[in-house]
């Protein structure tokens, strides 16, 4: 799906912000194969309560905003 979107828009992914689940060699090799630079976002060393990561998750924010609009809701009555 991502490849289709990139083909239609003519744009490509250059940088990807990922969490610690993508620190392995497999993810790095995959990213290099597609010429994508990975930036792993890690929480600060001292964890106390809720800790916000340095980079806001743009995709999650976009889905949250889209869910507010009635025409995009699945079960709007």
**Mean pLDDT rating:** 76
Radius of gyration: 17 Å
Number of domains: 1
- Largest beta sheet: what is the strand line-up? 1-2
What is the percentage of strand-forming residues? 5-15%
Question: Which stretches are low in confidence, meaning pLDDT under 50 for 5 or more residues running?
Answer: none
Give the overall silhouette: flat
The count of strands amounts to: 2
Task: Please describe what this structure looks like.
The model has no long low-confidence stretch (mean pLDDT 76). The protein has helices spanning 2-9, 25-33, 58-68; strands at 15-18, 37-40. It has one domain (14-43, 52-77). With 77 residues, it is of the alpha+beta class.
Any descriptors?
77 residues, alpha+beta, 2 strands, two-stranded parallel sheet, 3 helices
What is the structure about, briefly put?
With 77 residues, this protein is of the alpha+beta class. Helices cover 36% and strands 10% of the residues.
How do the helices and strands line up, and which of them pair or pack?
Blueprint lengths: L1 H8 L5 E4 L6 H9 L3 E4 L17 H11 L9
Parallel strand pairs: 1-2
